[in-house]
Amino acid sequence: DTGVSQDPRHKITKRGQNVTFRCDPISEHNRLYWYRQTLGQGPEFLTYFQNEAQLEKSRLLSDRFSAERPKGSFSTLEIQRTEQGDSAMYLCASSRNTEAFFGQGTRLTVV
Amino acid sequence: GEDVEQSLFLSVREGDSSVINCTYTDSSSTYLYWYKQEPGAGLQLLTYIFSNMDMKQDQRLTVLLNKKDKHLSLRIADTQTGDSAIYFCAAERMNYGGSQGNLIFGKGTKLSVKP
């Protein structure tokens, strides 16, 4: 296990469908973060887990978004009733202390 | 609210030094980071600096921090074409509980290196 793994890398979905992304953090990293990045912007924080506890959620995370980290290892991010504005790169990161390492991201396109 | 700002573009010739600048607003940020992003890829952590340091050097990379002015810079010596990418400055976001490790990013500086 050499890095943060995200699946799938690309997802195209029709508006109104639900999608789920998975993130596998670096082993023994207790902190896990989800960010969203749109074209020409830096990543924006969505939510954060310490072990299995979701400790913080951004106001960007509307009711249609939900994230889980059931056993303190991998995490899922679900978007219900997708909208075109949800099209973005969804990035996962993990850390143990100071350094946060990012995965390659899941690029979501809502058509 | 907290903010991080960077210039959007920088163009240099191969072999020259590149200097990417960043300003941030949250003076309580304990750590400040530089990430690199190549097209279609995730973010690669390049380096970071603790807020009580003025400078950190790591091979071709030099980070300078002016905490009074809340100004951070990344210098890349002997810039190569492989350094062409978008560079993001990020500040640690502090809240009532202290650091949670989540980061505020700038919009990124696109570095173009010409042969």
Structural account:
The complex is a heterodimer of chains A (111) and B (115). Chain A is an all-beta fold and 111 residues long. Chain A is built from no helices and eleven strands. In chain A, strand 5 and strand 6 form a beta hairpin. Chain B has 115 residues and is mainly β. Chain B is 0% helix and 62% strand. The mean pLDDT of chain B is 92. In chain B, strands 2, 4, 5, 9, 10 and 11 form a six-stranded mixed β-sheet that branches. Chain B has a five-stranded antiparallel β-sheet with strand order 1-3-8-7-6, with no helix packed on it. The termini of chain B are far apart. At the A-B interface, strand 5, strand 9 and strand 10 of A face strand 4, strand 5, strand 9 and strand 10 of B.
For the structure shown, list the relevant keywords.
heterodimer; A: 111 residues; mainly beta; 7-stranded mixed beta sheet; 4-stranded antiparallel beta sheet; 0% helix; globular; B: 115 residues; 6-stranded mixed beta sheet; 5-stranded antiparallel beta sheet; 11 strands
The largest β sheet of chain A comes out as: 7 strands, mixed
Strand content of chain B: over 45%
Q: Which regions of chain B have little confidence, pLDDT < 50, spanning 5+ residues?
A: none
Distance between the termini of chain B: 41 Å
The sequence of SSEs of chain B as H and E is: EEEEEEEEEEE
Helix coverage percent of residues of chain B? under 10%
Oligomer type: heterodimer
| Class based on secondary structure composition and strand pairing of chain B | mainly beta
What is the count of DSSP helices of chain A, taking H or I runs of 4+ residues? Answer: 0
| Structural class based on helices, strands and sheet pairing of chain A | mainly beta
